[in-house]
Write a structure and sequence with these properties.
The protein is α/β, with parallel strands linked by helices. The protein has 16 helices and 21 strands.
Length: 526
């Protein structure tokens, strides 16, 4: 296993001095929409799914823009509007339209009052699906470009599980994405996007708006794999991503990025991408093509980040007399942080039929399903009460219907910002967590706040794919269970039908050219 770098090592160096013709205090707007959404999940992400930030709340979201930080002082920051959601299903059209309108009108209103923007920090995910659309980020980027005008430099920060369509590529000037999965560098990447933007505006190439724009060498790679097969903890992804800092440091290069793409949406843009930015056209094309070829050549070498099995196989390992504890099981098919609905009951239903889990000899924690009515019923009964509740499958009932849980109310916890009220029902040694709203369980405190001790448990079952850092450290051993749901790891059984031709592993017959498309926006009002 390849050791992970400390995420803080990626923080950007001090900015270079402003050169002649550069902007010492450029006016820069901030806006975007961030969500990863599965088109295979019946969940719909509406207004309630998004945290909206504007004004000072949006500025405060970015620690590198805190008072006293160099990047904060290097520009006049204008926070417009940003919507961020947990992963889920496709976004409701009206919800998307409201956020898009708020961003576009906010830009136009600010320009009308204070004049044009020099730059714009476009903070997106890259895997937003909107019902009735096939390239939501491309649509949003086009609208933002039209509102800003041709001369504003746009720098885009993305998740490496996003997609870089031709439309998105052509609407913006700078793009970068995470270099770590799990995404320990997510905020560092946003800082890099802002640092890149400020570096160009400060006059590396004079006052000509055109010359501030780097060339983009863009190579789509016809490979689409789940994130659980492309973790940067393992080869070949570890080696691929290790190439990026060195390329970005070359003379004539601004940045280098690899997007894995988003596997659980059925859209033509869903595949991997390599983008290298810079002023040396030949160099960035060569490096982009080299990375793309290495990715393509390694396509069959990507493996799951941990041992995999059916749920039965995972339980057999976890309950073995010599199993190391706590033993973690990923319920991967309904992972809410990949876009699963979060209320698929298939795994919990199976667990409740296992006497070795419910007889009290083992302590098993199961996170989680959401069902507001079931939580209310448990809350009304009170801690210690014996209850029988029916829960789950209110959104995604594909693999199984609601589950009946008979047990004792172990705890009721109110006030969680994501989950709302949470109930734990103990059926013998099996502790089923039911939440009022969707919530991922990534941290030990997510369990501790419910009067559960994950470190003392024998088995912890979590709706997740690869283990997030705290869970990874917790696990004495673990299995990624290949369970059903909206983010099923077995992509071939999901039924993609709208991908571009030749995408591996759906098509294993072709050999792509992997030739870089090199361009920069030529439009200028000057």
């Amino acid at each position: 296993m390849t050791a992970q770098p400390d995420a803080h090592e990626i923080w950007m160096p001090p900015l270079a001095a402003v050169t002649r013709g550069g902007l010492s205090s450029p006016r820069i707007g901030i806006g975007g929409i961030s969500i990863e959404s599965s088109t295979f999940s019946p969940h719909i992400s509406g207004d309630e799914a998004f945290t909206i930030r504007t004004g000072d709340n949006l500025l405060a979201y970015y620690p590198f823009l805190a008072e006293g930080r160099e990047l904060a002082q290097a520009a006049q920051w204008v926070p417009i509007h940003h919507g961020r959601s947990l992963p889920g299903g496709a976004v409701a059209p009206d919800t998307y339209a409201r956020m898009k309108t708020a961003i576009v009108e906010g830009i136009r209103d600010s320009i009308g009052t204070h004049g044009p923007f020099d730059g714009f920090f476009f903070d997106i995910h890259g895997a937003m699906s909107v019902i009735g659309m096939t390239d939501a980020e491309g649509d949003l980027a086009t609208a933002v470009r039209e509102a800003l005008g041709p001369d504003t430099l746009i720098s885009t920060s993305m998740d490496l599980h996003g997609n870089v369509s031709e439309v998105l590529r052509d609407a913006v000037d700078l793009l970068t994405c995470y270099r770590m999965a799990p995404h320990e560098d997510w905020m560092n990447t946003k800082e890099r996007a802002v640092w890149n933007l400020l570096s160009r505006l400060r006059g590396l190439h004079g006052s000509d708006p055109l010359r501030r724009r780097p060339y983009k060498a863009w190579v789509p790679v016809p490979v689409l794999l789940p994130g659980e097969k492309t973790s940067t903890r393992l080869e070949p992804a570890a080696g691929l991503y290790a190439q990026l800092p060195g390329i970005a440091a070359m003379d004539g290069v601004v940045d280098a990025s690899i997007w894995i793409g988003y596997a659980w949406a059925d859209e033509p843009r869903c595949r991997a991408y390599v983008v290298v930015l810079g002023d040396d056209e030949d160099l960035i094309a060569r490096e982009a093509e080299r990375l793309a070829r290495r990715f393509w050549d390694a396509r069959e070498d990507f493996v799951f980040v941990g041992p995999t099995a059916t749920l039965d196989g995972a339980l057999e390992r976890a309950t073995a007399s010599d199993a190391r504890r706590p033993y973690l099981i990923s319920d991967s098919g309904d992972n809410p942080t990949a876009g699963g609905a979060g209320d698929v009951t298939w795994t919990l239903t199976e667990l409740l039929t296992r006497p070795e889990l419910t007889d009290g000899n083992l302590t098993t924690l199961v996170a989680s399903i959401f069902d507001a009515a079931a939580v209310a019923e448990a809350r009304a009964a009170g801690v210690g009460a014996a209850v029988t509740v029916t829960a789950g499958a209110g959104v995604d009932d594909g693999p199984s219907g609601p589950v009946q849980i008979t047990g004792r109310v172990h705890s009721i916890t109110e006030g969680d910002s994501d989950a709302g009220t949470q109930a734990v029902i103990a059926a013998g040694g099996l502790h089923a967590i039911i939440t009022e709203r969707r919530k991922p369980f990534h941290h030990l405190d997510d369990f501790r706040m419910l009067d559960l001790d994950p470190e003392a448990a024998d088995i912890v079952v979590v709706k997740i794919g690869y283990l997030e850092p705290e869970l990874y450290e917790l696990a004495a051993d673990w299995t990624l269970a290949l369970t059903p749901g909206g983010v099923d790891q077995d992509l071939l059984r999901l039924g993609h039908s709208h991908l571009a031709p030749g995408v591996f592993p759906f098509d294993t017959t072709g050999t792509p050219a992997l030739t870089a498309h090199v361009s920069r926006r030529e439009e200028t009002s000057a």
